[in-house]
Amino acid sequence: MGMQAEFPWMYTLLAPWLAYIFWMYRRTPRLGGARKHAAIAVRSFIILLLIALLAGLHPYRSFEQRNVVFVADRSASMKHDTLIGSWIAKAWSGKEARDTGAIISTGLHAVTDRTRSSEQLPSQGAFSFRTALNDRYTDLSRGLQMGASLLGKEGGRIILVSDGEQNAGDVLRQSRLLKEAGIHVDTVYIGSGLERDAAIDELIIPLSIKQGETFSLQIAVQSTFEGEAEIRLYEDDQEMTVSAIPLERGGNRFSMQGVALKPGFHRYRAEVHVSGDEQSANNAAYAFSRVSGPPAVLIVEGQQGASGNIEEALAASLIGYETISPEQLSLELAQYAMYDSIILHNVPATRIAEKPMEWIGRAVGDYGVGLMMLGGEESFGLGGYFHTPIERALPVYMDLQGRKQIPSLGLVLVIDRSGSMSDGKLELAKEAAIRTVELLRDDDKVGVIAFDSAPTWIVEPAALTNRDEVIAKIQGIQAEGGTEIYSALAAGYDGLLNTDAQRKHMILLTDGESAGNGSYESVTSGMNEHGMTLSTVAIGDGADQSLLEWLADKGKGRYYFTNDQSTLPAIFSRETVLMSRTYIVEGELIPSIGQAGDWRRLWNDGVPPLRAYIATTAKDLAEVALWSHEGDPILSRWTYGAGRTVAWTSDMTGKWAPDWVTWNGLPQVLAEWVKWTFPQFDSSPYRARTEASGGAAKLIVESTGGVDAVPEGGLAVSLEGENGIQEVKRLMPVAPGRYETLLPQLAPGAYLSYVGSYGNDEESSTVTSGITTGFVVPYAAEYRIGGHVGEELLKKVASLAGGRTLSLEDASESYRFQPASYKQPYDWSRELLLLLLLLWLADIAIRRLSVPWARIGKALYAPLRNNALPGNNAEAADVPHQPINRLKQRASERSRFYGLGNQFGSLPDEAEAAAASRVEARQQPAERVGSERLPESRSERNGPPQADSRAPKEREIAKVPAKAEKIVSAENIGHQDQAASNATINRLLAAKHKNKR
Asked: Are 636 and 624 in contact (CB under 8 A)?
């Protein structure tokens, strides 16, 4: 035990405390004697306690204690939770009762399994780990940091149990910091223990390969055993080759051959397979390469065999191509990145599914693939490309903005909202209707009917004066009920009949069969009579296709059948555009040359004439090389994101441009158009590479032209993984000409990326004017087969932190080190405050209350004194005299208190003598009750005078008038007071005995 103060400088208050005590002795005249000493002592003690509280004075108890925190590496490379738990339990059992321990698990982050305490583990056999963590990485420094926080100011020792295969953080730096903080770190090495594991460390392939070139693939394999294995190589998820190889313990290197057949970016994957492999997460490695050579062009044609002129022109310029139908378009974005350019030849948007439509737009904007649309009756606006990703990529708008000569249109949309439309169909139908509303002009009239068992007008036919209100009403349509087509068709006919428009058209959409049978022929004949047309759309095999096809035929419209509901918006857009016949501008014309740039030389000999084209609207930033006589773009180009696109609004079959098809310069012109759209890889001044950074991939971009080559808006990267998810991230400058960004939570694989300047338009963030490249994210380093470097790392950690290197057999040594001495303080401030309160009350009582201590002492002492007198018996007959004695004593004390005797004079002698004789006469029987008489009271011992025994002189003195009492002696005054007191007592006793009788 001991005492210590937190603020010892408060002891300086003792000097004024002593001065205050001295002052109280000199300046407290109101109190005296023991009462004064007690008051000063109590108040001095109160002040002394206050000084102790201010100084933080408290007792403490000294003891010795060992504090240990166990940090267990539970990353994926450590498959020994049971072994580690057993070792910790054994080490824990060797601690003394006062020693404490805690347990922490670490992976990418650290978590607490057991907080620090002196209690024993619930199970003495092994400790069970129950916490979950990210085991794909090993950050030992996080575990040491948390261990130091659990030890706190008391300090202690950390025991790190690991294989030492760190792949995140800096454990050596953390060890130095702990040593400076007085915390030692012991290490225990446990190997991975995998007896049969093979891992591919890396796959090396040339980054650039010429088409047709034979290239070599280098594969590095680590193995923990000797045996046979199988290596499989994949190119773009297509198996290239399978080879059986012998494995040796440790490192192995193999070389395989491949042939670059297709140009473009390609992903490669190598896999190793062994029997009984204990770890499969490290069996694959990834790489990428770009195969250059003859450029590759993808031709998508709307009519089979219609692209012969295009194919001949490309072949004449040694440009490779592949021709497919729109239904053959891939659902994988990486497939589009294989081509240098894509040509859409008279392809309607209704035949391109939603995903390929999106991937084509992304391939152009993000990866620099070129795009060219060639016209025809099913292209541009007539193909339904309004508000599609392809329209955004092209240099022209599909609608005719600012045109006044287009005939007014009255359109009624009849949409099935039955319960069968709830599976996403109705949502796309509403999107199609909204896109149609956006495509119409303000003067056009539109009406919307939603039908189930009965039709309901959602929007009455009226001009589009408030598009937002119409769109909001369309969005509110909900699926419910059955299907009744006839009544909805008749209601639409009645609505169109009362609509004032030059052209009237109805679109019917359903996925089912009608529950009723009406006179459809009467409706279609009425529509024909009033110049109305009807188109129908059947969704899925459940629709009444024969009825819908018949209605479209009788209504002189078009019939659409689709199993891909994502094409509904394109169908509605196409139908809306087709109602305006002026989209096809007919008549022979010779285009005029506009901003042709380097294409101007192509028409040095003149521009061939055209017979028809599709009217469009050029975008503001587009370069229009050829214009029509009506100011419509015939040939235009622009840069969209990372890619370039071209729009030719006439055809290439000879129907609208026969002079162009027979023109000798067509192959060269067409080749120039296509080549202009090719990716511009060699012009970018950026180099990209990746590094692993903890739990993320770090992309590093360096500008070969320095800081001046970086655009004002900065750099960004657009990346695409094997799952098709695209992300645009800004690159942050970290040094002159060097930019970085973290790409977290990426699965292992090869990724395509486009690095360039950052652009942000109204619709999306884009990356422009850069390079297309790739990078690889390998499997987590946690799964690598190490070369026992971890054991050396742990030894260095123990050396830097002043700790020990323990083994699995040294668990009992965990708590065998010099304990630290600690002081356990006791907070007694609450008790001191309670004592102060009691002393304060006592101080008030001593100073403010006048206690008759003499009377209290005499009252307590009287019984003891009376019992000690000789002849005193508690049962004697002297009991009747006790009241008399008490009365006498009170009278005596009263006389002493007033000090002047009876101010009203004494009784006459005769009266006193008579009263005394009566009292004595009454006392005679009482005296015979007991055998002894009580001792005389003080007044009796003083000898009160009796009436018959007084001297004559004394009687004369008693008769003196009251005013003469002032000059009598003090002795005579005392005798007179005694006589008066005795006379009073005798009278009281006589009255008492009389009442008893």
From this structure: yes
Helix, strand or coil, per DSSP, at residue 534: strand
pLDDT of the residue at 966:
42
Is the Cα dihedral 519, 523, 526, 531 positive or negative?
negative
User: How far is Cα 184 from Cα 69, in angstroms, rounded to an integer?
Assistant: 11
Q: Report pTM.
A: 0.48
- The pair phi, psi for residue 684, each rounded to 5°, is -90, 135
Q: How far apart are CA 324 and CA 421, in angstroms?
A: 32
Closest CA to 801 of 106, 32, 140: 140
- The candidate with the shortest Cα–Cα distance to 197, out of 260, 273, 252, 121, is 273
| 805-836 per-residue burial string, b: 16 or more CB within 10 A, e: under 16 | ebeeebbeebbeeeeeeeeeeeeeeeebeeeb
DSSP helix/strand/coil, 589? strand
Residue 567 three-state SS:
helix
62, 18 contact by CB (below 8 A): no
Instruction: Compute CA 977 distance to the chain's CA centroid, rounded to the nearest angstrom.
Output: 100
Token reading at 701: 């971009």
Mean pLDDT by 10 residues, the chain (997 residues): 82 88 78 79 89 85 84 84 88 87 91 88 78 84 92 88 85 92 91 79 84 83 90 90 90 88 86 88 89 87 91 87 93 84 94 90 89 93 88 91 68 89 84 85 88 90 89 89 87 89 89 77 89 90 87 90 83 77 82 88 90 92 92 94 93 91 91 87 60 69 62 72 66 84 77 70 55 77 73 91 89 84 78 88 80 71 66 49 64 55 44 48 44 42 46 46 43 53 69 59
Report the alpha-carbon distance of residue 774 to residue 754 in Å, rounded.
8
- Cα–Cα nearest to 175, from 144, 137, 149, 154: 144
Joined tokens for residue 805? 């290197």
User: 217: closest CA among 230, 199, 204, 200?
Assistant: 204
The helix (run of H) or strand (run of E) holding residue 807 is none
Q: In 482-502, which positions are buried (b, 16+ CB within 10 angstroms) versus exposed (e)?
A: ebbbbbbbbbbbebbeebebe
How far apart are alpha carbons 272 and 230 in whole angstroms? 6
- Could you tell me where the DSSP H helices lie in 119-232? 140-151, 171-180
User: What per-residue confidence (pLDDT) applies to 403?
Assistant: 56
Q: Which residues contact 410 (CB under 8 A, 6 or more apart)?
A: 444, 445, 446, 461, 496, 499, 500, 501, 503, 504, 505
- Considering only the C-alpha atoms of the chain, give the largest distance between any 2 of them, rounded to a whole number of Å: 182
Q: Say how far apart CA 454 and CA 436 lie, in whole Å.
A: 24
